[in-house]
Amino acid sequence: MSTLTDLKIARQFCIKCLVIFFTIIGLTIWSFTFLGLNPIRFFSFFADSNIAPFIARFFSPDLSTPYLLRIGNGILETLSISAIATLLASIISIGLALPTAGRFGPTAKSITRFLCNFLRSVPELVWATIMVLAVGLGPFAGTLALTLHTAGVLGRLFGETLENHPTANNTALVNSGSGRVAAFLYGTLPGIYPQLLSYSLYRWEMNIRMATILGFVGAGGLGQMLFYELSLLREPKASTVIIAMLLLVMVVDAISNKLRAAQLHSMG
Amino acid sequence: MKHHSSSGRPYISDPAASSRLTLLAVSLVILWPMLELAQFQPWLLLNTENIEVLGNFLVQFIPPNTEADFLRIVLVATIETLAMATAGIALAILIAVPLGLTISHSLSISRIGPGSNYLLSKFIRYIARFLMLFLRGIPEIVWALLLVRIFGLGPTAGVLAIAITYGGMLSKVYSEILESGNTLPARALLVAGSGRLAAFLYGLLPSTAQELASYTVYRWECAVRASVVAGFVGAGGLGQLMDQSMKMLNGGEVSTILVVFFILVLLADNISLLIRKQLE
Amino acid sequence: MGCIVQNISFNHANGNKALKNISLSVNSGESIAIIGASGSGKTTLLNLLSTALKPTTGFIEHNGSNPWLVSKKALKQIRATIGTVHQSPPIPSQQRVVTAILAGRLGQWSLLKSVISLIYPLDILGTHTCLERLQLGDRLFERCDRLSGGQLQRVGVARVLYQAPQLLLADEPVSAMDPVLSDLVISQLIHETVSRNATLIASLHAVDIALLWFPRIIGIKNGEIAFDLPPAAVTESMLKELYASEMDNLPMQSNRAV
How far apart are the first and last CA of chain B? Predict the structure, then answer.
């Protein structure tokens, strides 16, 4: 009897799989039709005369020295935006971590949790457009946008780290009359500091990528340069910016992989 | 170390003091030009003109725009975003599968022993890896911007941008999954002389299918967010709508779109979670 | 500091009755040793005295104030006058000894002074003096995770010495030390009562140390006070009854398993 019910369950389960599978296929096909995407149209597009030369112009990037200097400045600008934003956000997040972990009571915990969730849910691009309204075009808007978003992300991560950390050292100091902030600085921070640093460095790496994108809404860095050159239809210059972006991402990737390997090595 | 000051009382200095001071000095030296480059001028936040504009904009947020006409437009844009993500991932899979299979070491015939095409396959693998890096290294919004120039405004550019970037991302993760699983069955098949595709289908796919599918669904969830971002440069969907409303400083419309965006992301997250649970 | 403990009992969250109806009275300048088997309630009593725990019934008064009935600010001030030496010092492992000791006066310092001391220790001499009293002065700038168990315990004691509290509570402060060092640490703790008229209440596992150094011995068994006598009046049979749950030998410095 039990083998029969087992077979029944197996068959039912398989039916569920099939149903999901075919629903997904169906929705996918429907998506294409809804968007009016016709694969044949793609090829007719390439037959059009002005597309090929457009793409061809990208293959001769502008490598003149004065322009390369501007690119270099753009890279440094992007790095600075991401670095300062991550630094500011880390400092703010240490302050946010205490109430988020409940050290100042349940009401403060709910309020700061909500604040952190709000800051991180709004996409960085949206923050950037709002900041451009507040302080004008340029890298400062990008820095502020990244700071706000990252503070939400790190605030929550720092708070979780703090919550999971044993409180014995902290409690001992409070019981000898210390205030909550001083007890945190002397009792808890030395223990959680490596983890907080790790989160911040990881976030900096992601922010470098983000900083290049934010330029598209006028927030400085390589992104703003790319948007500018494409708007003026200067494809050779634009392709240099794209190459620079690619190189930046590859270098940052390689460095962080090496750092991670070294850290693993030193702990093991 | 203990010294004696002129009054004869012992004086001890902190051995860490000098290194901390140096660290502080070096940090300041690096920080100062960075602040300049980022044009860090916090006093700009107090600029009354900008504050007024921003204030008026933000004040409109509180009654979000709930007119029936506008809500209909938002609904269409939302469905467009979902369709863009789905179509984009579908195309990405088409790119990622061959690319991932080419890159995977576990399907490498040349690794088993010297064959006639050793150098050629190594070369092809290099090209494939470079292609993968190129596709993922350029942010999707850059692809979207370029594709908008080619194909004009609208979701076509967005779908292709997602297909390209996520194709690169998926191929990398696919190859990692294929290499980290149990590769012996595939190897056995290759040694016995089967082709790469057969080795994949019969040797690797059964054990890795669940993980491959799970990661793909997770990427679909990310693609929904990416579609909105791509929309900011004219690739259609909610993103394009939000960009237009922001340019017109219409706070009410922006707040409605933001709320819908949060709901959409929540929905996509939950659908993805559901499907992935079913797969297990 | 004078303390009054009146009919206190303490029940753990799981229902375990750690202390049942204890009363005692302590005068300023007294040194008291609390002895008893493991799990008898010694640590719970010390935690209640240090305001780490709140009594389930009854009350405790320090110098006439009940710490659980006063304002938060007054509680903080009371706590600044109580110093606890823990068996396992609550010090972050990456911290330097000097910072760990400075933390003793956080209750008396402003926040600004605390923050500055974190970066550059403002009172190196004072911390060094306290550490020197325990013959550990040359380790002032070491990281705490480079110290042995006994050395770390001495840092914990140095922190309390630096705090200079009116009430010193010590929970098995010499458990990881050899006889020579134990004598040194206990003598330094008792010196506090003599020089500053502070009160010392220490729980000890080794009976011979208690009988040797302390003029008042309180024995605790199963959460109740078994006896409260000067060492001369404590008989062998009383001790055997106190430690009946443990092995046949009474716990002494000399027959420690460590």
Answer: 63
* DSSP H or E segment with residue A182: helix A180-183
Task: Scan residues 158-177 of B and list those with Cβ closer than 8 Å to A.
Answer: 159
Which residue shows structure tokens 């294929």?
B178
Contacts of C106 in chain A (CB under 8 A): 173, 176-179, 182-183, 186
| Domain match, B172 and B83 both | yes
Q: Which domain holds residue A27?
A: 2-55
**Pair A170, A82 in one domain:** yes
> Is the pLDDT score of B10 beyond 70?
no
Whether residue B52 lies inside any domain: the answer is: no
Contact A185, C115 (CB under 8 A): yes
- Total tally of structural domains belonging to chain B: 2
C203 reaches A (C-beta below 8 A)? no
> Based on the domain organization, do B79 and B32 belong to the same domain?
no
Closest CA to A212 of B137, B166, B71: B137
Sequence-ordered alpha helix ranges (H) in B43-112: 48-59, 68-103
Helix (H, G, I), strand (E, B) or coil at A57: helix
Looking at the structure, tell me whether residues A34 and A150 fall in a common domain: no
pTM: 0.81
- C5 burial (CB, 10 Å; 0-12 / 13-18 / 19+) is buried
Structural domain harbouring B28: 2-40
ipTM of the complex: 0.89
Number of domains in chain A: 2
The domain that holds B255 is classified in CATH as: 1.10.3720.10
Task: Please say whether the beta carbons of A167 and A142 come within 8 A.
Answer: no
In terms of CA atoms, which chain A residue is nearest residue B265? A121
Does the pLDDT of residue B135 top 80, yes or no?
yes
